[in-house]
Every structure is written in C-alpha cells, then in structure tokens.
Amino acid sequence: MAVFLTKESKVLVQGMTGGEGMKHTRRMLAAGTNIVGGVNPRKAGQSVDFDERAVPVFGSVAEGIRATGADVSVVFVPPAFAKSAVVEAADAGIGLAVVITEGIPVHDSVAFTSYAKGKGTRIIGPNCPGLITPGQSNAGIIPADITRSGRVGLVSKSGTLTYQLMDELRDIGFSTCVGIGGDPVVGTTHIDCLAAFQDDPDTELVVLIGEIGGDAEELAAAYIRDHVTKPVVGYIAGFTAPEGKTMGHAGAIVSGSSGTAQAKKAALEAAGVQVGDTPTETARLVLARLESGR
C-alpha cells in the first residue's frame, strides 16, 4: 500500500515543456510514474518524445483529465503563474497537486492552498521535492534510485534530508516519502502525513523530519501523543542555527525561544518520539526500533 500516490495514479505535468519540466518528466517516467500528459495552452495538440515515448500536451488541466482520467498534477510553472496553475487544477477536479515551484509569494500560497482545500484538492508543497512511493510512482524531483519499497513512512520539511534518510535506510526501504516543503504556508502538514501513515497497514514506523521555526513540530507532537500508535522517530534540523538567522527555507527562522530545535525536540520526546541529534543517528534509531519490534 502507499500514501497519497500509487502505481495507479495518473499524472499530468503543468509546465512539462519547460526546462525543469522536461528534465524531471523524463526522470519520473524512468521511475515508473504513469505520466499521461503535459499542460501548456500554447502547445496543445502537440506531443513530447521522452526516450521513444510520446507524451501528449493538453491545453488545460480539465482537457487532460477528460482525455486521460488524470488524478495527480505536478506543477513546475514559474512562481508568478503558480497560483493560477493550482487554481486551474483545483477547478478541474484534480485530487492531488504537487507544487514543486519555489519562490512563490506567501500571499499566493495562502490563497491557493485555501482555495484548493475548498475544492477537495490536496496540495503537497509549495517549494517541495514532491513525494515518492518507491517502485510504484514518483511525483516531483526526488531521486528514485536511492531507496526501495519498504516499511518506513517519511514526512519531511527538507528535501536534502529526505534524500539522506532515504539513502541511509535504503536496505529497509519506504512505503512513501513525502516532502511537504519548508515555506511558512504548506498545503499538507506533518499531521496530515502522520494520520495517513497511521492508517497505512504497510507502514510500520514513521520518520518525521522538522526544522526550526514555526510550531508545526509541536503540533505534530501533540497529535502523536493523542492519535498515533505506531513508533515515530524524529530529527530537527537547525540545532546550531543562530537566533534571528533566516535559513534556506522561508519558514526556518527563530525568534526568541519560540521554534527552536531544542523546544521541538523536547515536545516530540514528551510525546514518546525518539529524536536523533544527527540524520545518521536518526537512521540508527530507526534500525534499532525496527529490530526490537517495539
């Protein structure tokens, strides 16, 4: 089983004919993703060849859904057009929109995440690496060759740390890895993923990766305490970050004692989560927990 993305998912790529869209569409196809089309109003009716496979280009998301039954869209359009792209996908009835684009103004993210929620569309991102169900489907930019299918679920604010944990635990493997993004406003949260992994029978343990800034990890800790029966292992990036320093992610900024790595670690440990001091220690905690069967 998998979370949010399966081998049956039919994927459209908004912005497929751009440089990033072309590159990552080829990689997603190589990973087994069932990409059924791209979207570009100026190139509707054309097709793009990817290693001898021709992928059609549709004039709109709605047209692509009517022609293919697509239920997932991956968004690679530039920041200025991301809001309209997501609104179009939501209006067309797409079930899942994975917004890879970085640099989207926060007020645009607030608008389209709220709008999509009202339309029943789940948003992953923005400014995220997407999600992968190894061996089944890959929607985004996560390298597919650094892990395999397995029994760990992963939710992370950080793309780089997602890749590192995937690699460190490649022999164990993952049910699904979800990069939710590090912007101040994201569509899918740690809690959403924890709930999905809790209900997934093939996920035995969940890895939660957070960052300094905001209160998402503290909220996740409270949710784990009250609702999650599966073991959770965590890591918080930013233990050595200076106060007031803006990190690589827009949401990773600390002011005073709020949002510090120490506070987040304490909240998670109070909820029964084992928290590593480094990604490698976190991977070791996962292995030990699985081996102990607890």
Instruction: List segments where confidence is low: pLDDT < 50 over at least 5 consecutive residues.
Output: none
Number of helices: 9
| H/E element sequence | EHEEEHEHEHEEEEHEHEHEHEH
Strand composition percent: 15-25%
Task: Looking at this protein, list some descriptive labels.
14 strands, seven-stranded mixed beta sheet, 294 residues, alpha/beta, 23% strand
Describe the protein's architecture and organization:
By secondary structure, the protein is α/β, with parallel strands linked by helices. The chain contains nine helices and 14 strands. The protein has a seven-stranded mixed sheet with strand order 3-4-2-1-5-6-7, with helices on both faces. The protein has a seven-stranded mixed sheet with strand order 9-8-11-10-12-13-14, sandwiched between helices. α5 links the parallel β10 (149-156) and β11. The radius of gyration is 19 Å and the shape is globular.
Sequence-ordered SSE layout with sheet pairings:
Layout: E1 11-14, H1 19-30, E2 35-39, E3 47-50, E4 53-58, H2 61-68, E5 72-75, H3 79-92, E6 96-99, H4 106-119, E7 122-124, E8 130-133, E9 137-140, E10 149-156, H5 159-168, E11 174-179, H6 190-199, E12 205-211, H7 216-227, E13 232-237, H8 261-270, E14 274-276, H9 279-292
Parallel strand pairs: 1-2, 1-5, 2-4, 5-6, 6-7, 10-11, 10-12, 12-13, 13-14
Antiparallel strand pairs: 3-4, 8-9, 8-11
Helix pairs in contact: 3-4, 5-9, 6-7, 7-8
